[in-house]
Amino acid sequence: ASSFPGTKILNFNVGVLGHVDSGKTSLARNPQSRERGITLDLGFSSFTVELPAHLREAGGHRYHSLQFTLVDCPGHASLIRTIIGGAQIIDLMMLVVDVVKGVQTQTAECLLIGELTCPRMVVVLNKIDLLPPNKRQSSIEKMTKRLHKTLENTRFKDCPVIAVAAKPGGPEAPDTEEPQGVPELIELLKKQTYLPHRDPEGDLLMAVDHCFSIRGQGTVMTGTILQGSLAINDTVEIPALKVTKKVKSVQMFRKPVSGAMQGDRVGVCVTQFDPKLLERGVVCAPGSLRTLYAALISVRKIGYFKGSLSTRAKFHITVGHETVMARVTFFGLPPTDARQPPSDATPLPPEPQLCPLDTPFSFDREYLYQEEYMTGQGEASSGPDPEQWALLEFERPVTCPSLSLVIGSKLDTDIHANACRLAFHGRLLKGFEDKGYAETALPQLHIYKTKHKEGQVERVTDDYTVIGRNLFKKETNLQLFVGLKVTLSTGETGSIDGGFGQSGKFKIRVSEGLHPETKRLLSSTSKKKGKGGGKGEPASEDEPKADSQPISIHLHFKRYVFDPHKKMVQS
After folding, report:
1. Contact 509, 495 (CB under 8 A)
2. Is residue 526 within 8 Å of residue 538, measured between CB atoms?
3. Which of 133, 176, 286, 548 would give a disulfide with 237, using CB separation of 3.0 to 4.6 Å?
4. What residues contact residue 13 under an 8 Å CB cut-off, 6+ apart?
5. Where, per UniProt, does this protein localize (predicted)?
6. How far is CA 490 from CA 86, 304, 423, 514, 515, in A?
7. Cβ 445 vs Cβ 432: under 8 Å
8. pLDDT tens across 338-356, in order?
9. Confidence class of residue 27 from pLDDT cuts 50, 70 and 90?
């Protein structure tokens, strides 16, 4: 949709997704193109129809026709990224399913990407010409039922399913075979259209899928505007080449226009450069993309992913138009922060679970380090997953817009193994552009681990001092621990006063003084064994035998994962 003069055609982008060989290319390619290989690129092709009445009534009266741009999304693993790259501008998903094989792994992955990126979908059952005519109808009905079952827990519940044969007889058949069901499919697509929300604001970002030069004019880049807008005489940046270029002319639907905006499919002619340098990639407003060495994201696990998500593991991260390996560190809210009512107020009613991002990330907060992503499916509970974030440390720098969608996957899993490779998704919240981010930025990230050490009281020296053991190794530098609070299993609080002797023992100062009961326990424990009660009295029942129950010492502290000084902190 465009507010620029000269465009009376509404462009509607349909993402064609499906399993590698489900035949989606036959649907997306123009009939004259014969190659039926597995497509690897977001191949575009389009057709134009009269503007449907419901769009005219919805306020689309400034358009006279509707162009469907079919974006053929690749099925290959390494190219999940292309799908995600074009996802912001896909208005409708068309999921192509082989009617004989049904939903395969890749189909399930497509569904997930669809759910993350697109509000509507139609399912196309392809290759119905392969079904024996007498069983055709019942097979189609069976498969339609199965698909509705698969989709019932997704946002595409009850989406329309239609059966076609896009290329009867398969790739080798002569072109005289008429496709079946294609006019009905076009009618269905028309019914599913709506006026997409298009926003000319924000920095320009355009996905380029083709580049060629015209002698004496300049270099033309064709592609789709993902965000913002552009006009003649604008300066645009090609980040991959680190150059800026001036826009000389813009075309839409092969007609010159003065400019274009989000969702539009355009050809943009700029001052000459070698088109071979930019087969595909992005063009943006100068300076609007950032190159990141690491990033903080909000994170949600994808339910179908079978593995666990562990801190320090490496995942393929797709962000913007790039996919790169990154090491992941998961962290969450400290136990007390997970919704506590203010102390002086009446307790809050239980809150309905909000979507991700109900607690904005902030460097002023403290977060708890996690060994892995926590799901809400514990032994006791089966709620939604608690809110979590992750630090991504990229193996090589990544160029992307801020607030990009981020998808983490395990693409090295075998594509034919029946397992979902998409592991988590989230939004980019904060990027680190400094190569030395580990020294300059991470120390401001307050992610802590809680530590607990336990030792025993060896003996009491006076009413205010005990000697402890087994809390530290011999070689530990006790100076680091001086002043830290400890608690005794009998209830007193004390602080570590310093070392005692050479073997890792230490003094604890109990400023409130030891309880009489504690002193009695300690004196009885240190008496020689087997003496019983002194002075002929029977040993009292509750007096422990020597060393049977030493008094334990507990030291709790926090250590911040990115603190260069490894300080120990107690709240």
Report:
1. yes
2. no
3. 286
4. 69, 71, 86, 89, 90, 91, 92, 196, 224, 263, 265
5. Cytoplasm; Nucleus
6. 64, 49, 47, 9, 8
7. no
8. 544 333 433 333 333 333 4
9. low
